[in-house]
Amino acid sequence: MSPICRPDDPGPFAEPWEAQVFALVVALQERGLFTQEEWAHALGRSIRPEGGPEAAADYGRWLATLEALLAERGVTDSASVQARSDAFLRAAAATPHGEPIRLANDPHPSP
Amino acid sequence: MAHDHDHHHDHPDHADGSSLTPIEARVRALESLLLEKGYVQADALDALVEMYETRIGPHNGARVVARAWTDPAYRDRLLADGTPAIAELGIGGRGGEHMVVVENTADSHNLVVCTLCSCYPWPVLGLPPVWYKAPPYRARAVLDPRGVLAEFGLTLPEATRITVWDSTAETRFMVLPLRPAGTESLTEAELAALVTRDCMIGTGLPLAPETAQ
């Protein structure tokens, strides 16, 4: 059986985006969009893909689970998340190093 | 690892432009859509991150354990009904609504896992370590707790009974470890310094007093 891998503990979040995902999930729970139980079960399903090995319940899975829940509840859909994500990538490339990346810097905003 | 959690800060990258990884862009996209739609507020998100990076963590659970070691009536209340006893110390809230505290004894040891995903008692332990959320621990804690403990450097006598508790979103467990020998003269605060995160999950024991000083 696989050994338990225990890397040096980086603290609660290894990267800032992990903290952002965590905060979004908790804030939406408190707003009543879904309950803790619904979240745990959605995450539990998401880490057990059909035909694939069980995954870690890490913040990457949190993000995927959140996107799926939001789509299910009609809050966002994956096409708009993808479009906005592409806009951020273009904005980043157009932003001089060291300056804040703002959506307004996207050189090709969608209408 | 220290971070600036300003939600609009950037990362070191190319000389002529900035870059985001695909996952960073996706998180920003989701966050900005939810902000626009009014589902979340930026200052509330920042406050949440700040809270879990600095104020909520195993030092809270350590205070609970040290109190239970020094106050037998408190220990009884804690084992009878975890949530209100923990609230006596001003600790509680999300992820700790229904806490069950299980006590190690001379001949029994407790180990906590979440086989479903990563349910964990946030108010007393903070957010779970990476290994707690990974498949090997989730699977093996139940099938081979003794092997798991050995991997954490903890070998218990054969006669020690090990009980594994499976946390859920509804019920979250915390271990009350045995008070180490030779700590009779320590204050409650000194005792709390011996209480590690792992000993409250059950994958470790409290530090020995000479180690902590």
Structural overview:
Chain A has 111 residues and is mostly helical. Chain A contains four helices and no strands. Chain A has helices at 16-30, 36-46, 59-72, 78-93. Chain A is globular and about 50 Å long. In chain B, 45% of the residues lie in helices and 10% in strands. Chain B is built from twelve helices and four strands. In chain B, helix 3 packs across helix 4 (72-80). Chains A and B meet through helix 1, helix 2, helix 3 and helix 4 of A and helix 1, helix 2, helix 7 and helix 8 of B.
Beta content of chain B comes to 5-15%
Rounded to the nearest angstrom, the distance between the terminal CA atoms of chain B is: 25 Å
What composes the largest sheet of chain B? 2 strands, parallel
Rounded to the nearest angstrom, the distance between the terminal CA atoms of chain A is 53 Å
H/E series of chain A, N to C? HHHH
In helices, the fraction of residues of chain B equals 40-55%
Beta content of chain A: under 5%
Strand order of the largest sheet of chain B: 1-4
Helix-strand category of chain B: mainly alpha
Beta strands of chain A, count: 0
Q: What's the rounded overall pLDDT mean of chain B?
A: 92
What spatial form of chain B do the alpha-carbon principal axes imply?
globular
Unreliable residue stretches of chain B: 1-15
- The shape of chain A is globular
Total strands of chain B: 4
One letter per element, helices H and strands E, the order of chain B comes to HHHHHEEHHHHEEHHH
| Radius of gyration of chain B, whole Å | 20 Å
Q: Which short descriptors sum up this protein?
A:
heterodimer, A: 111 residues, mainly alpha, 50% helix, B: 213 residues, two-stranded parallel sheet, 45% helix, globular, disordered N terminus
